[in-house]
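Q:
My hope is that you can spare some time for a protein that puzzles me. I hope you can help me see how the letters and the C-alpha cells relate. Thank you; the sequence and its C-alpha cells follow:
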Amino acid sequence: MGTQGGEVVITLLGTVVIRVVRGIAATTNVLMTNSTSRRRTVLAVSRSIGVLPAPK
C-alpha cells in the first residue's frame, strides 16, 4: 500500500510540475519578445522556484 501511495504522489507532482513549466513557458513567450529579456525572466523564475541557485 505504501509504495502505491508514493507512486500516486509522484505522478501528481510530475503532472503539476509539467503544467507549471508549460505555463511559465507560454507566459514568457507571450510577454517577452526580446531574447535577452526572455532569458532574464526565465532565470529569475527558475531561481524563484529553486531550479537554479540564487546569486550570492
